[in-house]
Amino acid sequence: MAGQVHDLEVCDKELHEKEVEESERHLAIVLEDISFEKLFHYDFLRNSKFMHGWKNVRESVNKEKLVESFIKAQVFFYNREIEQVNYERYVKWLAENKRDVENTVLFKLCTEESHRETSASNSEDLSSELGNYPQSFMELVEMIQRGEKLPNTLDLDIEPLNIDPTPAIRELPLKPWEIEKPS
């Protein structure tokens, strides 16, 4: 009888471990799907850094490999700037979810001949309209070190009060070695 109970406990434990593994696997897939959705809907057009890089890449890519190169550029940029995404799994996800990158507005705008000339001026207009935001934390630190005004910040005219500090009323506590030990 005790042996049967032990066997049931072992089976129950193994079943529970399998359920946990399965739920962890399912959670990983869901999280990856969310990452892929965020990548697919990321607004690359408004990112002048991506547009500048894509313009340079686009000029050296064959027309036949334009879609593949565009997806690679998106994943490369997204991996560096936002979060890590696996390229092969993303391409598989695009196919499984019937996401045709070639028919997206983003792809069409990024590959049009006329857009090549206007994208630089549009990104300059957009950056001047929104302010010259730093693209990374290091750029922000460098702006502060150079003493430049940060975009969309207020200049608070804070001046010292030029008065003497209020003296402490309370006596400072004694340090352990200053305390006299009773003998």
From TrEMBL:
Residues 36-97 form the PEX14-like helix-turn-helix domain. InterPro entries: HTH_76, KPWE_PEX14_dom. Pfam families: HTH_76, KPWE_dom. Residues 133-178 form the Peroxisomal membrane protein PEX14-like KPWE domain. This is Uncharacterized protein. It comes from Dreissena polymorpha (Zebra mussel). The lineage of its organism: Eukaryota, Metazoa, Spiralia, Lophotrochozoa, Mollusca.
